[in-house]
């Protein structure tokens, strides 16, 4: 499932024809990089791919002021069919990406076990800061969001909250974890 494709095709279907810069501005306005898995800059490459696949088509060239000419794209019938599939895929797929912290914790450096508490406390505090910032940002922009968009943003905040809770549990278990690591190494 390609989020950038879903964004472009969905935006063109909902808002009508646009050029790449307008799509990028829309992504920036919606702070897409805060809640989707692509940055606004990825839009231009995706437009080229969608155009070459016939899912969007250039309808006209447009020039504003001294800016260069821009192709204005619209969604094609094939693009609408692809959009329907992308929407279903996005709703059906569950994506929980592995976090490198898990592998690092499973392969601890025996010479740095005493550093773990400080490192993980800083990590947890950064997650708390992101949660606080995200909640403040949501409160600031809530009046601009649809009900669904507000829930989407709350989903990210809920995931941050779960990460913080896991870090708290891990930090609480850290003395036992360090003891286990040292005991196993001493035995081998």
Helix content: 55-70%
SS field, number of helical segments? 8
User: Mean pLDDT, rounded to whole units?
Assistant: 93
What is the approximate shape? elongated
Provide the β-strand percentage band.
5-15%
Q: How would you characterize the largest beta sheet?
A: 3 strands, antiparallel
The whole-angstrom Rg is: 23 Å
Low-confidence regions: none
The number of E-state strands comes to 3
The helix/strand series, from N terminus to C terminus, equals HEHHHEEHHHH
- Summing up helix and strand content along with how strands pair, one would put the structural category as mainly alpha
| End-to-end Cα distance | 46 Å
The largest beta-sheet arranges its strands as 1-3-2
